[in-house]
Design goal:
single chain, 3-stranded mixed beta sheet, 11 helices, 36% helix, globular, binds S-adenosylmethionine, Rossmann fold, alpha/beta, 321 residues, 12 strands, 9-stranded mixed beta sheet
């Protein structure tokens, strides 16, 4: 996809996720040959609109409209291109803990939790957060991180969790590029990548990071397939090993995805996934009648069997079993 098309597509996505300022800037860049020429000086993989706009903010770009960003971008183009070469898009969406918690509640504890693609490890704190859907509440009601999730359920769906989640006695994550919650610069970059006007998401991240800092998770810089058995070997005896993947397997090439699924099976681990619905050949999740496509973006599965579908962030779920 050529760069201008990437920015046009990103503008639609920004609008969709409630970030009109980002959408306007993306449209500005998409229609401006001089700005596109700056972006095209970066490596192809770094020409992502989210990354470009985050790098501008990181370097102190004016927060105003495109007419304010444009002269800044053209004047600071060398710096922007250099920073694009140093930075990667990195996210850690705590909201995905809601679907994760629903699947986790179906696993008898004690649990050893191992997340692949853990980023800052914030989803490893799944049992340390509180959840509410309608009149149902589970997790930790006194946690500073409280998530509200919109759930509807088909006739065959099991009831939502009620009360506490299984005890997590060990937790660790693998990531090619882990984020250390104790490192202010790394956390600031994670925050810079969030849409600026989504104060709710900034606050959630701040709260989850503060909680994670009280007991930072063990994170290992390694590949999801190659590092899995080594890290799993550290899990304590007597705990059920639960491997978790949320929004990560899409980054693995197709054959590596299957290698990951095979490796989880070889370890005899339970497996919770919240991944793009059509990504894994073994996870069959049809779109239930009446559920809009964007609310069936992801499939929630336990041991490869679909429990439900949901939006990309885990805020709207439809349970099927
Ligand atoms: C979109 S983030 C999702 C993070 C977290 N699971 C969440 O849901 O918020 C994907 C993560 O996968 C990591 N990643 C990508 N390819 C990987 C691989 N082959 N092995 C391990 N981690 C990988 C990235 O560094 C990134 O932190």
């Amino acid at each position: 996809m050529i760069t201008s098309e990437r920015f046009v597509a990103a503008a639609l996505a920004f609008d969709h996720e409630g970030s009109p300022s980002q959408a306007a800037l993306a449209r500005g860049i998409a229609g401006d040959p001089a700005a596109l020429a700056v972006v095209d000086r970066a490596e192809e993989a770094r020409r992502q609109p989210v990354l470009v706009l985050a790098v501008c903010r990181w370097l102190g770009a004016p927060s105003g409209p495109w007419s304010a960003l444009r002269p800044w971008l053209l004047a600071r183009s060398d710096e922007v291109v250099a920073e694009l070469g140093r930075r990667l898009t990195q996210t850690n969406d705590v909201r995905r803990c809601a679907p994760l918690s629903i699947a986790l509640a179906r696993v008898p504890g004690p649990v050893a939790l191992l997340e692949v693609g853990a980023s800052a490890g914030l989803c490893l704190g799944v049992d340390r957060y509180g959840y509410r859907a309608g009149d149902r509440a589970w997790g930790d009601p006194s946690s500073p991180v409280q998530l509200v999730v919109d759930v509807d359920a088909g006739v065959d769906a099991a009831p939502l969790p009620d009360g506490t989640l299984p005890e997590v006695v060990w937790r660790a994550g693998l990531d090619l590029d882990p984020v250390d919650v104790r490192d202010g610069d790394q956390v600031a970059w994670l925050e810079t990548l969030l849409p600026p006007e989504r104060g709710d998401r900034h606050e959630l991240l701040t709260r989850a990071v503060a909680l994670a800092r009280t007991a930072p998770p063990r994170l290992v810089a390694a590949d999801a397939v190659d590092g899995l058995a080594g890290l799993a070997a550290e899990a304590p005896d007597g705990a059920t090993l639960v491997v978790v993947s949320t929004g990560t397997l899409v980054y693995l090439p197709g054959r590596r995805r299957q290698a990951f699924v095979d490796e989880v099976g070889r370890l005899g681990a339970r497996w919770i996934s919240y991944e793009r619905r059509d990504l894994l050949t073994d996870v069959i999740a049809d779109v239930p009648p009446g559920v809009p496509a964007e609310d069936a973006f992801a499939a929630l599965a336990l041991d490869g069997r679909a429990i439900g579908v949901g939006d990309a962030h885990g805020t709207r779920l439809h349970l099927v079993s």
